[in-house]
């Protein structure tokens, strides 16, 4: 009996010891909580902490913008969860008209190859945007919605874009303009301007549009810069000039003949034979080309006896539908020796050649919208922003440069893979006897442009459109009469 009694006593002693330790730990926890409250009070009153919160608020945006982790935050980058069924007082509710807005021009880069499959091959109404451009715009608007830079009806954004690029065409200088939210406070007397406000110093303390949008955009679309613009600005109609580049491999082309023929494009001409005609919406086909140049690039294909990459640069005030690709297609025929440079003079003379000869336009992938020029606009990428506590530099320009360099390296790797496949293909044995036994097809002979079938002229297209309009009018009139007769009976 003594041994069980001793075990019970030992257990009671252990329980008493543990209770004493628990009480001691609870007292220590209360002391630490008190110290933590004192330190939090000191930190909240510290000027450095307030300055850091202000900087972080500018990075993530003061309107609940997306941070680097993809979460929506506000109040200096701290997440704020709303409780379910939580009511907000009426004086705290903020509509889109209570936010300050600024009219902004954005310079956009996009790689057009991914948009190739989103273009319709069927005949479409020329007044409708090309589907790949609609897809591109939808990607941009999705990013604007996600970052809450826009809110409400898109009709109030006063959106415009500089150029309509074809399916598959890339750009490093496309420009769009629209109203975006601003960090600047709405003036007290807005005079019914719905918060639309252009500050005197727009670069200071403004939202980092480049950094914020590039975080959520697909990797083949990037905002290169931004600039505040006057409200009467239009990315389409305020553009002074547009510059295109078309890249091509030499492949024994006569570049001198191409350059001599290309210089004939410079000046103001009627380019109806160098475009896809849209008689329903375009009635003036005169365009002014200010510069034309053909020059070699740095890229070479050593495995193809040093075949070098060249580029055609064409600059003008405005361009017609497929104009650049039609011009380049004719230049390629001249470079191959199939056409004389004088064919450009014949195609530019619409009195002599009122109907466009049928020919295939140049492929879309090598075409790039290089730049769009505007008066008084200076696009910028955000300056370096330092975070006080971690001493980290957040620079949108550095991030953009790193992204483009990474993409360039990725495509270089793909090129190396295809090069290895090409070398492997050359090692496969070929049985020439099988090829010699078969009858080889005779190469198709070239038909000169001026001897080919032609498309309808502008006047013929207008007559057809008017005839179609009259037929539709007569059909509607007859249908209305039939309906009225049935109503009477």
UniProtKB/TrEMBL annotation:
UniProt xrefs under CDD domains: PseudoU_synth_ScPus3
Domain Pseudouridine synthase I TruA alpha/beta: 263-375
Family annotation (PANTHER family): PSEUDOURIDYLATE SYNTHASE (PTHR11142), TRNA PSEUDOURIDINE(38_39) SYNTHASE (PTHR11142:SF5)
Region of interest (Disordered), ranges: 68-92
NCBIfam families xref list: hisT_truA
InterPro entries: PsdUridine_synth_cat_dom_sf, PsdUridine_synth_TruA, PsdUridine_synth_TruA_a/b_dom, PsdUridine_synth_TruA_C, Pus3-like, TruA/RsuA/RluB/E/F_N
Keywords: Coiled coil, Isomerase, tRNA processing
The keyword Coiled coil appears for this protein: yes
Species this chain originates from: Rhododendron griersonianum
Name of the protein in its database record: Pseudouridine synthase I TruA alpha/beta domain-containing protein
Family: Belongs to the tRNA pseudouridine synthase TruA family.
One GO CC term, this protein: nucleus
Residues forming coiled coils: 15-42
Any Gene Ontology biological process: mRNA pseudouridine synthesis
Molecular function GO labels: pseudouridine synthase activity; RNA binding
């Amino acid at each position: 009996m003594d041994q069980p009694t001793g075990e019970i006593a030992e257990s009671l002693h252990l329980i008493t010891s543990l209770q004493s330790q628990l009480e001691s730990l609870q007292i220590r926890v209360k002391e630490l909580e008190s110290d933590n409250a004192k330190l939090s009070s000191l930190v909240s009153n510290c000027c450095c902490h307030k300055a850091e919160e202000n900087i972080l608020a500018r990075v993530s945006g003061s309107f609940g913008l997306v941070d680097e982790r993809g979460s929506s935050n506000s109040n200096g980058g701290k997440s704020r969860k709303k409780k379910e069924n939580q009511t907000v007082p009426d004086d705290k509710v903020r509509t889109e008209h209570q936010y300050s807005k600024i009219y902004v021009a954005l310079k956009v880069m996009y790689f057009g190859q991914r948009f190739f499959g989103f273009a319709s091959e069927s005949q479409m109404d020329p007044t409708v945007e090309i589907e790949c451009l609609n897809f591109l715009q939808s990607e941009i608007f999705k990013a604007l919605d996600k970052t809450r830079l826009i809110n409400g009806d898109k009709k109030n954004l006063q959106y415009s874009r500089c150029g309509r690029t074809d399916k598959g065409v890339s750009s490093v200088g496309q420009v769009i303009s629209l109203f975006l939210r601003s960090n600047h406070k709405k003036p007290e007397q807005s005079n019914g301007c719905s918060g639309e406000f252009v500050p005197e110093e727009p670069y200071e303390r403004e939202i980092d549009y480049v950094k914020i949008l590039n975080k959520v955009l697909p990797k083949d679309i990037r905002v290169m810069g931004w600039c505040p613009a006057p409200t009467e600005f239009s990315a389409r109609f305020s553009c002074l000039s547009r510059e295109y580049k078309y890249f091509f491999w030499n492949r024994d082309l006569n570049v001198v003949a191409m350059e001599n023929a290309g210089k004939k494009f410079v000046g103001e001409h009627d380019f109806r034979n160098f475009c896809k005609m849209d008689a329903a919406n375009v009635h003036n086909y005169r365009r002014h080309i200010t510069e034309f140049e053909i020059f070699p690039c740095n890229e070479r294909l050593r495995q193809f006896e040093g075949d070098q990459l060249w580029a055609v640069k064409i600059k003008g005030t405005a361009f017609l539908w497929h104009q650049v690709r039609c011009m380049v297609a004719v230049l390629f025929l001249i470079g191959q020796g199939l056409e004389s440079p004088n064919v450009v003079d014949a195609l530019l003379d619409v009195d002599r050649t009122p109907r466009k000869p049928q020919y295939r336009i140049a492929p879309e992938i090598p075409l790039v919208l290089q730049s769009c020029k505007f008066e008084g606009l200076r696009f910028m990428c955000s300056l370096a922003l330092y975070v006080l506590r971690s001493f980290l530099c957040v620079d949108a320009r550095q991030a953009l440069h790193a992204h483009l360099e990474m993409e360039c390296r990725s495509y270089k790797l793909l090129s190396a893979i295809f090069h290895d496949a090409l070398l492997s293909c050359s090692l496969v044995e070929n049985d020439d006897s099988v090829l010699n036994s078969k009858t080889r097809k005779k190469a198709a002979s070239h038909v000169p442009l001026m001897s080919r079938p032609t498309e309808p002229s502008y006047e013929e297209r207008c007559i057809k459109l008017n005839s179609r309009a009259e037929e539709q009018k007569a059909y509607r009139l007859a249908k209305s009469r039939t309906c009225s007769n049935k109503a009477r009976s």
